[in-house]
Structure formats: C-alpha cells, structure tokens
C-alpha cells in the first residue's frame, strides 16, 4: 500500500489548485450558486477540454485519461476545497462510473466518450422520495415493451429524487426494477434522455446551493437498457461504493480549507488585547481540528488507494472513509463557524458556503450511521 | 536511493546473515558481531557501529533479520533514547564508553527528567547539580522513572545555574545509578502496578566529564531525547517479541525481554486493546446491538485512521526531513483511541465492568484496560501539552503568554515540594 502521492500526482494537485483558486474564488461561487445552471460555461469548458478532468478515470479506449481513483480523488479534493460549481460529480463520478461498471462494450463506446469530453452532462438517478441509498428503496418500475429480451425498449414509471444536477443533465442513468421484484433482484440500469416524453423535472430547493438537486417524475418514459436486465445490483452497488470514496475525498478537501480559514481568522481577530488564536481554548480546538481532518484525509486517501489496488476489503474502507468524512466535515464546519463568532453566522462571511456543502455531503450517499453499519457488516463477514 | 542499490544492500545483508547468524551463539557474543559489522544499527554512522543508511533501508534490513529470525541488538527500554542522545550530543569518550554496551544489552538506562514539581513544565526542574571540589554533586528528586530499578545509568536533567532564565540554567548529565547517593523506590499506580520509580538524590556524585554538551545546554539536549521519545509513541514502535525457539541466543534474549518488560505487562491494555473488541462483542452477545455496533465502528475508524496517519507521516519522513511535530499528532490520536476503547469495553462488559482481578472478564484484562487507559493521555506529554505543541509548531498560532522566561529562575513562582 502506497502512503505517499508520487511527484507527478503532487504536481497534478498543484496545477489544479492554482487553476481552481483562479477560477473558483468565493465571489464566483456566490454568483453561480444563485443561477439555475450553477456552472460557468467557460470554466467548465476548460475543466473538460483544457484539463481533461471529465475523463480522468475513464479508460483511454472510451476517450478518457485512463487514470485511477487516486487521481480522481485528487481532482475531487481540490474541487471540494474550491467549492467548484459544476456538474462534475454527477457526470464523471456517478454516471460515467455506473456505465463503466454496468455497460456492455458497445454502450461504453457509445456513452462514455461524450461524457469524457464534456460534450454531454449526465447524471445518475437512484434515490427516490423515501431518501434511501440502498437497493430496497427502489420502487420505480421498468416494463419491457417486448418480451423482455435484450435490445427491447423499456418504459419507466415512478419518481426519482435528490438527483444531482438532474435539471441540467441531458442524459440520465436511471435505476429501476422489474414490476413485483424486491431487494437486489430485478434491478436494471437505463439511459434516458432528459427531454424524453413523460419526464417531468422539478428543481428542488437545496440548502447547499452549490449542489443542485432535482426531482424527476417518470410517466411512461421510454428508456434504453444498460447492461444486463435484472443484473444491476452488483454494478450499481460498486458504483455507489466508488462514489462514496470520491465524495470522501471531495469532503476532506472542503474540511481542510475550512480548517485553514479558521486558523487564519484566529490570527487576525483581536479581543482582550490579543489575537484570539493565542488563547488555549482556541488553540486546542485548532489542534483537534487538524487531527480530525488529517485522520479523515488518511481514510479518504487509503480508500482510493485500496480501490485502485482492488484490495479485498475496499468496500469496508469506502464506508469507513465516507463515515469519517461526514462527521469530520460537519464538525469542522461547526467549529469554524464557532471560532468566527458572530461574523461566522452572517451571509457575508464565506464559512456558510462550506458549512452547507458539508451538510449536503453529510447526507448524500448515506450518513455516517448508515456507513458505519455497512462497514461493520463488511468487516464482520 | 535507487532500486538497484536497495537490492544490492538486501543481498549483502542476506549473505552476511547466512554466513554469520547462529542461534547457538551467546547473546552478547552475537551482538558484538552485529556491532562490528554495522548490520546491527545500519542507520547509525559508519564510525559508530553503523552503515549510515536511511531509515527506509534500515527497515528493509530489519525485514531481513525477521526473515531468518536473527536476534537484533538490544532495543528495549530507555537505552534507545540514550543512544540517540549520545550520538547527537555526546563526546567521543561517551560514545566509546556507552554505545557498544547499549547495543549488546549489557547496560540498561533510565531517563531522569520529570519531577514532582515539574511534569508538563519539564524545564522547571529543581533537582540541582553543584560543582563541589571538582565534582558535580546532585540533590533532589525525580519521578516516573522507567527502568530505574535495573538501570546502570541515567540521563539526568539538573539545574546548574539559578540566576539565569529557566531554560538556560539546565545541564544534561550521565549519572551512575549504582552509587550510594541514589535511592530508587517503586511508585504504585492507580492500576496497582508499579512500573515506574521515584529516584532520590542525596549528594550523588558525577565526574565532570559526564556532562553532555556544554554547561547550560541541558534543555537543547533533552529536546533530542524527547523528540525520539515522541517518535516512538506514534504506534509504530513495536516491543521486542521473544520466541520460544531453541538456541542460546534466543533463550538469553527471551530472558532479557522478560526481565525488561515484566513491569510493563499492562502496556498493551493502556492502548485500549482494540484487537479484543469484536471477539468480546461476540462473547457477550452484543454484536447485533445497533448502538454497540455504531460505537465499535467509531472505535475502529479512530484506530485505523491513527495507523494510516502514522504511515503517512512515516512515508513523508522517508522522503526526507527530521522527526518533526507530526509525532505529536499520533500521540494525541492514540489518546482518543484509548479513551474510546475503554468506553466500548465498558459497553460490552456491562456489570462485569465493576469487577477486577480474576473476577473481571478475560482473567482481569478487561479491568486492566479500564483502569490503565488514562495513562495514554498523560504519559510522555499530556494531551493538553500535545495540543499546545501542535497549535504552536504546526499551525503557527501564538505561544502562550509566559511569566517564567523573562527573569532569573530563582524568582519564578514554583511548586512547594516537601
């Protein structure tokens, strides 16, 4: 197991950090979070075309860069740090990974290159109104219009909610089940065009305005099967675990940035004739924060490395990393707000931008309780 | 180092071990060979029993020793800290006199730093060394002294000047423990064991040549010792493990380890024994309790991330750089693990947590965990001191306002010790 980033990876991180500091200052985050699109087209073009980030973990055969989850993790950590407003997680992490895991060779050749190039923004719709992150929560039905053989068209009925960038994506990968099936059985993935007949999209009012969510209602929407009918449980499960590793890396980037802003502020703020950073009550909090964030980083890095190494217990580690990142990011946001005092509760201060991202990330893909339980199941067996 | 060089060194050490390792040698005889060859402490300088290799290569050589089961140089106890300090600050005479007998295990050492009146504030030491008739004469008391009851030498921090600021008036000495002026008494802990000692000095004597570095340099030298101590506290430093294989060297090593470690049998318990948790949860039928499962998962997360952070720090260190404050992160993290582990073991044991000795689960091990874990967040620098170090050295936050550095130590308020 490698516990160090290579020189190339460190250089890659530096390039990204400089780019994102330049393109995604909080003034831009504030501007974009008020828009429906939530993304600057020119910056997105640079992300996709100049830097090739949308295809970072997609194999070269499908138009990507052919790197692994360690590199994808670096991208996400830096984006999380800069709170980049873009449909990156939806398109590259969720949709592309789902297609990679579930799709046939032909489907990968068809669907992945436009996502890798950034010409298509895709997303993955899996959670429903019940807000569950597991397979049991899926109620949407897929009915084969023919005899159910491959190549037939399917009709989807039901609702998907909490769909990341669901209002801006042009292609939606949807998880649905054969009518009457339950649990892991009968699940399939489908590709649906966002402008398909019978598909109604409503933007949700998301507390974190940098992470756009939508609710999609499907009434007899025609869809194309991805992969094997009824065989989506395993590739979908793998996708969510991989996405959890990615999200954990994104979250530690945000947490680390918050932690830095907290320390910077305590050096500036003077009360009782001294910088508040000189009080032990603050210093000890800052030390605890550093330990927590570094621990969460260790878990996120280890999970990405374990995933690339295909270590036997990587799904357990993925859940550990997500649980750890969920608790740490939120805790760091709370303490950072606290260290800022009154100003930390104002709209003008930037802390709440990360606070809200921490909150949305805490719940997205399952909170820490959910993942701790998964981790126990995975390590026990 | 290139790949090739590493491979070359590996085959060199393999060949040497094949030609020389013999478990029927006497322990000291074997270790003398190790010292002579440089393979015993390959990271030490070539002129002092080593080969001047990096820590990374040192670990590789360790692996090779492990592979053939070869006994290493003596590594238990405080002797490692003594060796590191002498290597960094000792005179040629100190190195000649002490290093070899540290490696062979013939001499044991102890660290005479903490005092009843100065624990966290180590530089407030009031044990005094006064020059009388061409010799240093020592009076005062030290406490929490590991291994003093079987040590030959002590690393002593003592005050030699009361009219300068506190850090400037300290000097560092090597003290012969086996003399009349030194009285070693056991100190009983809350868990019933007595692993440490109190050491009383009444006109103990030190020859002038056993001053380490310059007069008044004591704090600087002590910092080297402490840095090495913290480095060992990152959870990666394993205790030597005895084997029950036949062979004179193995038998003698097992005796040495048993003798050295006897007072510290509870040390694994103070770390919280995370390794026992799943087994205990099964035994107690609580593995299916969702609340307990959450707490176990939190503990495993703390424990794993502590290991991984230590591995990251180590990997970073291998890329260059001296032992830095990242050691403090590991120590603080270990405290969190120990505290959480005690909580989880209590949940698992329920009413049995009220029992001790043979009546406590696992023949008393559980009780020992519950009353030993407080040591982790105190020994070797309290959590609060670690947090000061982290916030000041890593995060660069302002230092505490002090009232003890701007005046002669004589005028600094201090504890009244009977």
Explain what this protein looks like in three dimensions.
The complex is a heterodimer of chains A (381) and B (418). Chain A is α+β, with helices and mostly antiparallel strands and 381 residues long. Chain A folds into three domains: 7-117, Butyryl-Coa Dehydrogenase, subunit A, domain 1, CATH 1.10.540.10; 122-230, Butyryl-CoA Dehydrogenase, subunit A, domain 2; 234-380, Butyryl-CoA Dehydrogenase, subunit A, domain 3 (Up-down Bundle), CATH 1.20.140.10. Chain A has eleven helices and nine strands. In chain A, strands 1, 2, 3, 4, 5, 6 and 7 form a seven-stranded mixed sheet that branches. In chain A, helix 4 (69-82) packs across helix 7 and helix 8 (280-308) packs antiparallel against helix 9. Chain B is of the alpha+beta class and 418 residues long. Among the domains of chain B are: 80-231, Butyryl-CoA Dehydrogenase, subunit A, domain 2 (Beta Barrel); 266-379. Helices cover 43% and strands 13% of the residues of chain B. In chain B, the strands form two sheets. Chain B has a four-stranded mixed sheet. In chain B, a hairpin with a 2-residue loop joins strand 2 and strand 3 (135-146). In chain B, helix 1 runs parallel beside helix 3 and helix 4 packs across helix 6.
């Amino acid at each position: 197991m490698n516990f160090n980033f290579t020189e190339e990876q460190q250089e890659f991180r530096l390039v990204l950090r400089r780019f994102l500091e330049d393109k995604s200052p909080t003034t831009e985050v504030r501007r974009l979070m008020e828009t429906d699109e939530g993304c600057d087209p020119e910056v997105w073009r640079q992300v996709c075309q100049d830097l090739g980030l949308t295809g970072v973990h997609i194999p070269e055969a499908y138009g990507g860069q052919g790197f692994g989850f360690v590199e994808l993790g670096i991208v996400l950590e830096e984006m999380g740090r800069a709170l980049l407003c873009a449909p990156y997680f939806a398109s590259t992490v969720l949709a592309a990974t789902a297609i990679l895991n579930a799709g046939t060779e032909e489907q990968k050749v068809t669907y992945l290159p436009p996502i890798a190039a950034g010409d298509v923004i895709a997303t993955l719709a899996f959670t429903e109104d019940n807000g569950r992150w597991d397979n049991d929560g899926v109620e949407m039905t897929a009915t084969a219009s023919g005899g159910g053989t491959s190549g037939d068209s399917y009709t989807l009925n039901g609702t998907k909610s909490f769909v990341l960038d669901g209002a801006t994506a042009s292609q939606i990968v949807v998880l649905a089940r054969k009518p009457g099936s339950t649990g892991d059985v009968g699940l399939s993935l489908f590709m649906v065009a966002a402008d398909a007949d019978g598909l109604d999209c409503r933007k949700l009012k998301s507390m974190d305005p940098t992470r756009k969510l939508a609710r999609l209602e499907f009434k007899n929407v025609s869809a194309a099967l991805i992969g094997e009918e009824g065989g989506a449980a395993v590739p979908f499960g793998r996708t969510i675990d991989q996405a959890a590793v990615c999200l954990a890396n994104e979250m530690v980037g945000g947490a680390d940035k918050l932690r830095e802003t907290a320390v910077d502020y305590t050096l500036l703020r003077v009360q009782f004739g001294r910088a508040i950073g000189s009080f032990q009550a603050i210093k000890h909090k800052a030390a605890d924060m550093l330990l927590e964030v570094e621990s969460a980083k260790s878990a996120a890095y280890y999970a990405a490395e374990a995933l690339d190494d295909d270590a036997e217990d990587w799904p357990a580690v993925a859940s550990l990393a997500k649980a750890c990142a969920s608790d740490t990011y939120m805790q760091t946001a709370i303490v950072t707000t606290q260290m800022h005092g009154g100003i930390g509760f104002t709209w003008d201060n930037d802390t709440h931008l990360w606070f809200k991202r921490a909150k949305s990330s805490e719940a997205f893909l399952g909170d820490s309780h959910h993942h701790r339980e998964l981790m126990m199941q995975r390590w026990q067996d | 180092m290139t790949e090739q060089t590493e491979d070359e060194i590996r085959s060199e050490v393999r060949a040497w071990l094949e030609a020389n390792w013999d478990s029927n040698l006497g322990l000291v005889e074997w270790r003398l060979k190790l010292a002579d060859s440089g393979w015993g402490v390959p990271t030490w300088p070539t002129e002092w029993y080593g080969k001047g290799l990096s820590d990374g290569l040192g670990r590789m050589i360790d692996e090779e020793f492990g592979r053939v089961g070869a006994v290493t140089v003596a590594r238990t106890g405080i002797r490692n800290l003594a060796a590191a300090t002498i290597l960094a600050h000792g005179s040629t005479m100190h190195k000649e006199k002490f290093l070899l007998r540290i490696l062979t295990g013939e001499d044991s050492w102890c660290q005479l730093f903490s005092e009843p009146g100065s624990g966290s504030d180590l530089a407030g030491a009031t044990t005094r060394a006064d020059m009388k008739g061409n010799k240093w004469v020592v009076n005062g008391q030290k406490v929490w002294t590991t291994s003093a009851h079987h040590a030959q030498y002590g690393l002593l921090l003592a005050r030699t000047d009361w009219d300068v600021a506190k850090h400037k008036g300290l000097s560092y000495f090597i003290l012969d423990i086996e003399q009349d002026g030194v009285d070693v008494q056991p100190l009983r802990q809350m868990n019933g064991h007595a692993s440490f000692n109190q050491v009383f000095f009444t006109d103990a004597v030190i020859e002038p040549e056993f001053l380490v570095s310059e007069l008044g340099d004591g704090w600087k030298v002590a910092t080297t010792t402490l840095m090495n101590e913290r480095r060992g506290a990152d959870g990666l430093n394993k205790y030597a493990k005895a084997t029950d294989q036949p062979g004179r060297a193995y038998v003698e090593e097992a005796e040495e380890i048993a003798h050295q470690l006897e007072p510290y049998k509870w040390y694994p318990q103070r770390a919280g024994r995370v390794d026992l948790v799943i087994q205990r949860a099964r035994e107690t039928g609580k593995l299916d309790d969702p609340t307990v499962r959450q707490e176990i998962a939190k503990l495993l997360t703390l424990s794993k991330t502590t290991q991984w952070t230590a591995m990251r720090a180590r990997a970073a260190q291998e890329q260059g750089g001296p032992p830095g404050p990242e050691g403090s992160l590991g120590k603080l993290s270990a405290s969190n693990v120990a505290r959480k582990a005690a909580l989880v073991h209590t949940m698992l044991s329920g009413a049995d947590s009220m029992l001790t000795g043979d009546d406590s689960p696992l023949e008393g091990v559980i009780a020992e965990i519950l009353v030993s874990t407080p040591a982790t967040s105190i020994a070797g620098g309290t959590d609060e001191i670690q947090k000061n170090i982290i916030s000041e050295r890593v995060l660069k936050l302002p230092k505490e306002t002090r009232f003890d550095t701007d005046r002669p130590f004589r005028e600094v308020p201090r504890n009244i010790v009977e």
